[in-house]
């Protein structure tokens, strides 16, 4: 089964819940974006406000993960309380376990495990919350050495989930995302592809997976873009470095915010089915959605390529972002 996300989510902007499902994350600006007291109830209220605003503005794709604290719980409760939202595509991910125990400062915030045992445990947990509302289940943060690409017994499990009507996908991370995507395209069970979607980091700073994403799209995979604002580095007050000049200039030329321009550049890629907003406030979400009305010229898109960094440099800088 494969998702036709452009038909399901014509706005092509989705909402990811990583920033509001747990008190600590690596997005910039959390001290001012989130409530002073980040209790479970306070973040639930924020998550509900974001999902309500997203749905009202046409967003029809919601993304969570087992490791996003209580994100799946918030999503399940929101869906239960909004019976009119039956047209939402619901995605979650397995492969990381949240270990920070609701702290912003922890030695380890999440632990990766792509084993069959981890899958069996986490798919049961996700199903207990989301039931038959789950449309897409992704292996979280796959890299070329992940057993998710080589474990044939796991592939059989994932193929069974597909038979149950859930699209199986994977998200990628690290400087070798393109290698991961191409390896995933060759994974089959009984001659049928296992992965029907790929969710990848792609933005004005990190463009290395673009060619592989085009190949995945041509092969019939749904393509979801995450971290399109580089964990906040391409948004608002954080666009200050001299090398970001082209982004600031084009924002002035179009009358749009920097985040809207950065997202519009990703939406301009013909292979991008859904681009995720990781907004932590309703104002940020509205600004992100405004990207759908920003039309960049070919010359402006070319100027924005100046911001691209080598993949290794980008991921090294990302790894230094503090959980806050």
UniProtKB/TrEMBL annotation:
Domain NADP-dependent oxidoreductase positions: 43-307
- Source species, domain of life: Bacteria
Q: Name one Pfam family in it.
A: Aldo_ket_red
- InterPro entries, per this entry? AKR2_Oxidoreductase, NAD(P)_OxRdtase_dom_sf, NADP_OxRdtase_dom
How is this protein named in the record?
Oxidoreductase
Q: Which organism is it from?
A: Sinosporangium siamense
């Amino acid at each position: 089964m494969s998702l036709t996300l452009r038909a399901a989510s014509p706005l092509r902007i989705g909402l990811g819940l990583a920033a509001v499902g747990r008190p600590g994350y690596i997005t910039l600006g959390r001290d001012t974006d989130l409530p002073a007291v980040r209790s479970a109830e306070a973040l639930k209220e924020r998550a509900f406000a974001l999902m309500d605003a997203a749905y009202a503005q046409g967003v029809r794709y919601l993304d969570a993960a087992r490791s996003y604290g209580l994100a799946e719980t918030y999503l399940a409760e929101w869906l239960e309380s909004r019976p009119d939202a039956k047209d939402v595509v619901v995605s979650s991910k397995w492969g990381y376990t949240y270990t920070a125990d609701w702290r912003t400062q922890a030695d380890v915030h999440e632990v990766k495990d792509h084993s069959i045992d981890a899958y069996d445990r986490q798919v049961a947990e996700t199903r207990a919350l989301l039931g038959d509302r789950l449309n897409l289940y992704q292996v979280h943060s796959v890299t070329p050495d992940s057993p998710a690409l080589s474990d044939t017994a796991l592939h059989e499990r994932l193929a069974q989930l597909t038979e149950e009507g859930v699209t199986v996908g994977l998200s990628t991370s690290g400087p070798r995302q393109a290698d991961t995507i191409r390896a995933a395209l060759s994974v089959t069970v009984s001659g049928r592809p296992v992965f029907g979607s790929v969710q990848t980091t792609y933005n004005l700073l990190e463009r290395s997976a673009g060619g592989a994403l085009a190949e995945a799209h041509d092969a019939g995979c749904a393509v979801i873009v995450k971290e399109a604002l580089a964990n906040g580095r391409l948004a608002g007050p954080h666009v200050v470095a001299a090398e970001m000049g082209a982004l600031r200039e084009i924002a002035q030329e179009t009358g749009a915010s920097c985040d809207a321009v950065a997202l519009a550049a990703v939406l301009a890629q013909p292979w991008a089915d859904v681009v995720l907003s990781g907004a932590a406030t309703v104002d940020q979400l509205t600004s992100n959605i405004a990207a759908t009305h920003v039309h960049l010229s070919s010359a402006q898109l070319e100027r924005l390529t100046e911001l691209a960094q080598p993949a290794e440099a980008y991921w090294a800088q990302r790894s230094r972002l503090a959980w806050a």
